[in-house]
Design brief:
The protein has about 220 residues and is an alpha+beta fold. It contains 6 helices and 12 strands. Helix 2 (about 75-95) packs across helix 3 (about 100-115). It starts with 7 loop residues before the first helix and ends with a helix. Component of the proteasome core, a large protease complex with broad specificity involved in protein degradation.
């Protein structure tokens, strides 16, 4: 059950379209065999102001799933917290984790109900393999092999389209994600200030790489 929001009546009175959502960022999700790579840059902007140079845009939802956010920071944080609570309750009641398809469906229902101004990427692994889902503020859910959101996504997509293959390894996917972000940060003024990179694998689950690991990958490009 989605928690009650006392301010939902006011929020429901406003329609939310993709054009209404501030998407000043670049986020990337890539499937690589049985694993997933999620990557974002770290700039948070308010108009022409760089509001933060260390913005966190990847949030762990379960041991094997995580969310990237572009759009409203508060809405993105609330979405991640809501999904985490609901996934934990599901596992407690059923004795097994929610599938990624089920988690994506729940995320779409939450977005549709709350009208969160955020455009997330949901990535994770389950018994059926690796999954990356693109979601929109209206609750739309689409599974993709790779996806990018935010103002720098047009640039990042050029790199992803050129470099993605069905047999991409985890290491290659990490390098591709970093390449995509670096290209976006070169041309999109709302993207910049470093890279956050996370992997989700069947053996380790969710893991966020540290700055030294990200720098090492960037130096190999």
């Amino acid at each position: 059950m989605i928690p009650n929001n006392p301010n939902q009546r006011e929020r429901n009175q406003a329609s939310v379209s993709n054009e209404d959502v501030a998407e000043g960022t670049t986020t990337i999700g890539i499937t690589a065999g049985d694993s997933v790579v999620l990557a974002t840059e770290q700039r948070a902007s308010m108009g022409n102001l760089v509001a933060s140079k260390t913005a966190k845009k990847i949030y762990q939802v379960t041991d094997d799933a995580a969310l990237t956010i572009s759009g409203g920071v508060g809405d993105g944080q609330n979405l991640a917290k809501t999904l985490k609570v609901e996934a934990n309750l599901y596992e407690m009641r059923r004795g097994k984790p929610m599938t990624m398809t089920g988690l994506a469906s729940m995320a779409g229902n939450v977005l549709r109900s709350y009208l969160f101004r955020v455009v997330p990427i949901l990535g994770g692994v389950d018994d059926e393999g690796a999954h990356v889902f693109s979601l929109d503020p209206a609750g739309g859910v689409m599974e993709e092999e790779y996806v990018s959101t935010g103002s720098g996504s047009v640039i990042a997509y050029g790199v992803l389209e050129d470099g993605y293959t069905d047999d991409l390894s985890l290491d290659e996917a990490q390098k591709l994600a970093v390449r995509g972000l670096e290209s976006a940060m070169e041309r999109d003024t709302a993207s910049g200030n470093g890279i956050l990179l996370s992997t989700i694998t069947p053996d380790e689950g969710f893991r966020q790489l540290d700055d030294e690991e990200v720098e090492s990958i960037a130096q190999e490009l």
